[in-house]
Amino acid sequence: MPRKLTREEAHAFLDSKPGWIMLSTIGPDGYPHTVPLGYFRLGDEIVMGVRSETRKVKNIQANPKVSLLLESGSTRKDIRGLMIQGMATLHALPEETLNYAREGARRRGVPESELPTEPRENVVYIRVVPHRF
């Protein structure tokens, strides 16, 4: 049986950025809609930037309950995974999207002098507050 990660282990795994995080939302037909996204962590919360007119945004507007999955490894012996269930909120105001874009760039190692100075058009940030790790 898989071992449950502590909050600190979950944070360390998220921060190690082993790959894309998989976001699952529920579509209007009741089926899960799962897509890979880039992400970063703010405290316990996970933040992802997306285009504003996508299916995942519409799904979150209708039902903010989401699931995230992050995994790494290539064999049964070294596979690791983390599932997060939580509530998603959408952030589309220009000052919010610019702040999130700057924070995401910082976490990727972009120098302060090269951080974005203007918000990108048609971008929304999804912020997930975990209910369960």
Model regions low in confidence, pLDDT < 50 over at least 5 residues: none
Q: What distance separates the N and C termini?
A: 16 Å
Q: Please write the string of helix (H) and strand (E) elements.
A: HEEEEHEEHE
- Percent of residues in helices comes to 10-25%
Q: Please state the average pLDDT score.
A: 94
Q: Indicate the radius of gyration in whole angstroms.
A: 15 Å
Topology:
Layout (H helix, E strand, L loop, with lengths): L6 H9 L5 E6 L5 E6 L2 E3 L2 E7 L3 H8 L2 E8 L7 E12 L2 H14 L15 E10 L1
Antiparallel strand pairs: 1-2, 1-5, 3-4, 4-7, 5-6, 6-7
Mind explaining what this structure looks like?
This protein is of the alpha+beta class and 133 residues long. The protein is built from three helices and seven strands. It has helices at 7-15, 55-62, 94-107; strands at residues 21-26, 32-37, 40-42, 45-51, 65-72, 80-91, 123-132. The chain has a seven-stranded antiparallel sheet, with helices on both faces. The mean pLDDT is 94.
In short:
By secondary structure, the chain is of the alpha+beta class. It is 23% helix and 39% strand.
Provide keyphrases for this structure:
about 130 residues; alpha+beta; seven-stranded antiparallel sheet; globular; 7 strands; 3 helices
